[in-house]
Structure formats: C-alpha cells, structure tokens
Amino acid sequence: MMKKLVTVKIILSIFCTLLLTNTTFAQYSPTPKFKGKIGKTIEETQERYAPVHPVAPENAPNVVWILIDDIGYGATAAFGGLIETPTFDRLANNGLRYTNWHTTAFCAPTRAALLTGRNPHSVHFGYFASESYGTPGYDGYLPFEKATIAEVLRENGYSTFAVGKYHVTSPSDVTAAGPFNRWPTGRGFDHYYGYKPSVGGAPQWNAVLYRDTQLAPKDPEGRHVTELFANEAIRYIDELKKVDPEKPFFLYFAPGATHTPHQVAVEWVDKYKGKFDKGWDWYRETVLARQKQLGVVPQNVELPPQNPDVRPWDSLLDDEKTVAARLMENYAGFVSHTDYEIGRVIDYLEQTGELENTLIVLMIGDNGTMGASPRDKLVNYTETLPEVLAKQLKNLDSLGTAKSFPNYPGGWAAATNTPFRYYKENPSWEGGTHNAMVLYFPKKFQGNGEVRSQYSYVTDIMPTTLELVNAKVPKIIHGYRQEPIEGISLAYSIDHPEAPERHTIQYHETTGSYALYKDGWKVAFPNGMKSPNGAIREPDSNGVYLYNMREDFNEIRNLADKYPKKVKELKKAFEKEAWKYNVYPLKNKWETTNPYTIKYYKDNMPRF
C-alpha cells in the first residue's frame, strides 16, 4: 500500500510539474547558482548578486519589422507601382531591395512562419487556427519548442512590442478566461496593442482593439486604426527610452492595411482622382516598364496572359469604369495613408537619434493581392451587376468611410500583382507568394537601393535579424528545449550581390494545391482549386506545371511536357519535404473540427 501511495505521489508531482511548465509564459529565469561565500557572520560572508534579467550588449541595435497585409508586388512605387509610398521609397532607396522573396499564400501561415523562423506546417499553421484540423500541421497552436523572434530577443535583453494584426492565436483561447500563454504577451511581447489576436481582417474605423490581454477603450476621437497603431508604437518606444535609454527594442508593426475593407479618409482617396482612368491593362504595361527601369524584374520579362476572371478594360461599360476607377483610387489612398503612418514612426526614430542603429525589415505583403469574385467580374458582392453598379454609383462618395466595406475588382488585384499571375490563396503561382522586401540598416550598410535576387522565404527573416544584431537563440526558453530554426540567414547576400543562393529548396501548400522550388526550378500542382468565395485561383486543370525560374521569372513557359524527369524528381522532393514538415494530409475543404473552436464560435457569434 505504501509503495502505491509513493507511486501516486510521484505521478502527481510529475503531472503538476508538467502542468506548471506548460502553462507558464514568464521569461526563462531559473534560480542561478550562488557564487559567493556564506559564513556565520557578515564579516565571514562574501555576497554575490547573480544577474536577474538578460542585458543586451552595449549599443545593441534596435529592430523594427513592418508587415503589410494583402498587397501585390506591383502596387507601391518602391517596386515600380503607381501608388505613392515615399516612406517605402526612402527605406528601399537607402537599403536593399530583395526581389525574389516569398511568403505563404495566406496571412496566418505567413505570420506564424515569420515570427518563428520555421515553416508554417512545422509550427502547426498550414491554414488558420479558426479553421483548424487535428493533425500537427494544422491544429493552429504555435509550439513553445519553436520560439518566436520576440521570445528570443527578450532573452537577449530587448524590450518587445507588437501593434496591429497578430492572427496566430486560436479563437478558443481568445476570451476573458484565457489561457493567455499564446496571446502575443504570452509569446514574448512585453506589450501588445491591436486587433483581437485571432482576427484576420477588421474595420479600419471604430475597430475593436486589445491592449495586452484586455479590451481597450474605444478611441474617443474616432481616429483611423493605423494612426492609433503608429501612436502606440511611438509611445512604447518613448516610454522605454525615458526609463532605460540604452536598452534596445524590437517593434513588430503589422497594421491591418491593406486587407479589406479598404477604408481611409476621403482626402487620401481624392489624391488619386483620375489617375487610374486608363484602366488595369494600361496599369500593367506601365508598371512593368517602371519595374524594368528600377531593376526589380529581369529585363526579359513579358506580361503574362491576363487572369481568366478579368475582362479587358475597354470592354467595360462607362459606369463600370467609373466605379472600378474610384475603387482603385480608394485602395491607392489606403496604401498611401499606411505609408504615411509608418513614416511617422520612422521620423520619430530619426528625431530621437535611434534610426541609425535600427535594423528595419520592410515586408510589402504577407501574400499576394486579394482577388474579387469572378461572378460579376467587377466587385465582390452578391447582387446582380446592374444592382451593384446602381448602388456603387450612388454611394461613390461614401467609399472608404465606416459605412462602406470596399474591395477592388479582380482587374486591379491582377494589375497590382504585376508581373505575376493570380492572387492570394494561390500557393502554386508566384502571384500568391512572391512579395517585395527591403532590408535597411544604416549602421551596417548603405544599400543605395541595390537589388538582391537570391531566392528567399519568409522564414529567412528571423535568422537574418538574429545574425545582423548578433543575438543568440538560448537552448531553453520558458523551460522548453528549442528546436532548430528552419530559415536561412540572408546576411551572406548583403555585401555579395552575386553570391549563390543558400535557400535552395522550399515547398508551398495551401488547401490541397502545392508547389516546390528547388535549385532554380519550380513544379506546381494546382489541382484545380477554387477559393472559398469562388474566385479563380489558378487554371481549372489538374495539370502539372514546371518552370525554370532563373529564365522565366513570372511563369509563362510551362516545361512539364518537355522535362518529365525533372517533374518526377521535384515531386519526389516535395513529398520528402511534406513528410518532414507536417504538410500531410492534403486537405481541400476547410471546416474546423476543433471542438473548442466550434464551441467558441457557437457561444460568441451572436454577439458580433
């Protein structure tokens, strides 16, 4: 009987230890070994204080990550687009433009991969936490064994702040009951101010916001949410520097812009009056020429065939053109306003003398542009086309206000993705995963807008950052032994533009469509998937696509029939990567089976 009691006590002790370990999210800080000497009296004692908190090296750089939502490669002026972005231009012209940088085809998987430096399925985010599936690649719970950049930098003596959109917390955890260990403040951020951390898209006016883990009061002035995010970012840094001027900080600035709804004050929209009247076909041609002039695409690139859901601009009725042009003016104003608010943060860093010693990573897109429904070929509504036109013409002056919920037509989505085909949700095509990225770090390098064309992926941002600021990944964080980072640092390319790429293989997968890049070649298996709202994401074909990406930047010439052995080789390589990183099972229908998430939606949906 005594042995049984002892056994039970041991089991309970182990269980309690595991329970405490798995619910804590404090900084990893075990009691250090005492290195002084204890005597019977003070005279015989040699006291010694062990360091309680990590301290960063002297003059450690600050880090700012900026992540823009739902925007194409050809949208901003910094990469040849026609939307004015002077802040992005400033960073790009004085930094390095990375023209072969890739994300996942959806926002939550990209953010999970970015924050951890691991592949999305490897950190359980093959899709969304809100639509999870009970296997390791898709359950939507970031593993503690794969720390975030905030957790790592905090262990290196940094203060850490996040503002905006987080989107990697399970909805079942986002209640007043918690648990809070997978909220931003539970994954390494000292402070968070932004949307509910499970939310992917939200209004830009009168948004519901959280501070740390508490619902934040409504802004009494009713300001645009991106302005609030910029204000909060500045406040965090200001308060830190007043208390501890030498302590470095990490700021993750991830606004909801430019995700739908495209909402912004009318003065920003009016800046673009008449500037898009020539239409999306003209936009594509104009932007491609500008991209070649900037050197952000190869000189031999041609425009790809137009996406099958997009009508030629000249075939639109006059009223359709009026509505479509105004929707694009509205979107452009939204982008420029976002650039302006980010510029306020950059200007603040310059005014306080912090900018020179700050590494800034500007990521213009967490995926490609969001295409609209092909049903009416113009706007993403359920009414008939005449009803949509009548409503839109009547309410053009309301676009961008809190009364509107605008998206732009698929033709503008395709145009702002120049020179690539298709959209967000497309893992098989560059239009879904090829985004613009800038590294800016005045203290370490003056990039002068030069281009780096080595293949890179969202997982590379974390190891690049850690190498450039000389931060180390502890073996244990929060009590969890850490597993290896899967991205590859891009620091090798900074001083060596012609250096061979080191990220030589990368899989992509979303909703059953998949692709693999390997040593300059790319194979794609679109599987004829459609997006949940019916938008065409790729050709309605179960065909196979093979491209030589070093000669065919934007996937115009399919070589699958010409090189069947290469297709077979790459498909085998994809299968190896898929087993390694939890990609299987492939799943093309997404309705959550997580009972906790189902219960959350059942309990909470009537309130929204």
From TrEMBL:
InterPro entries: Alkaline_phosphatase_core_sf, Sulfatase, Sulfatase_CS, Sulfatase_N. GO terms for molecular function: hydrolase activity; metal ion binding. Keywords: Calcium, Hydrolase, Metal-binding, Signal. CDD domains: PAS_like. Residues 1-26 form the signal peptide. Residues 61-470 form the Sulfatase N-terminal domain. Belongs to the sulfatase family. This is Arylsulfatase.
